[in-house]
Design goal:
Layout lengths: L1 H5 L37 H25 L4 H34 L9
Helix pairs in contact: 2-3
């Protein structure tokens, strides 16, 4: 399922596209009819994954820029702000795919998830 998340495919069938229109997730898979939002507020966990991954990468970049490259804070802070502004939306779809894969591993799809 994580491979399917990496390829931005439906976590159940591996064929459908959850994001046919860019950043907006489809209501259902166009191949297997799996409903991507399994309950209200379902993708809150994806936001945690998104900000967590981007935060860890930003901390690593901070370490490289401050300790390794010895850049000034006047350069590091704007660079990390730009990274955050670009990185969060760029990783958004993948974080939802990872969240779906993790959730389906813990709570497999049932008949009520398909209509
Ligand atoms: Zn599907």
């Amino acid at each position: 399922m994580l491979k399917r998340a990496r390829r931005l495919r439906c976590p159940v069938c591996g064929e459908g596209e959850p994001f046919p229109d860019g950043l907006k997730i489809a209501e259902r898979c166009d191949v297997c009819a799996f409903g991507f939002e399994r309950e209200p507020g379902y993708f809150l966990g994806a936001m945690v994954i998104n900000y967590g991954v981007i935060g860890v990468i930003a901390l690593a970049l901070l370490g490289v820029m401050a300790v390794g490259l010895r850049w000034s804070l006047w350069v590091i802070v704007p660079a990390l702000m730009v990274f955050g502004l670009v990185g969060v939306p760029a990783f958004y779809r993948y974080s939802r795919g990872i969240w779906l894969a993790m959730d389906l591993a813990a709570d497999p799809a049932e008949a009520k998830d398909f209509r």
